[in-house]
Amino acid sequence: MELKLLLLIALGLLGLFLMGSVLLKVFKFTLRLILQLLMGGVLLFLFNIFLGQLGLRIAVNPVTLLTAGLLQVPGVILLILLHYFFV
């Protein structure tokens, strides 16, 4: 009986370790995504201040935030070019 109990405890600890490592990766990914969205929002806000004087505004929505957050300045330039040519 003791051997079965020890094996079950070992399996339970292994399962907790594996689930913890998976949840940690998901948490890190989510935190990185949130930080990039915030950075994209700051970049879009700054560029909208400067480009607003020229009559050019970039809409702030999840897609533009993610584009600006992931690609940084080149992403904002891409959004400006897309807005200039297609709107």
UniProtKB/TrEMBL annotation:
Pfam families found in the cross-reference section: BofA
InterPro entries tied to this protein: BofA (IPR010001)
Keywords linked to the UniProt accession: Membrane, Transmembrane, Transmembrane helix
Entry's transmembrane regions: 34-51, 63-86
Domain of life: Bacteria
Protein name in UniProt: SigmaK-factor processing regulatory BofA
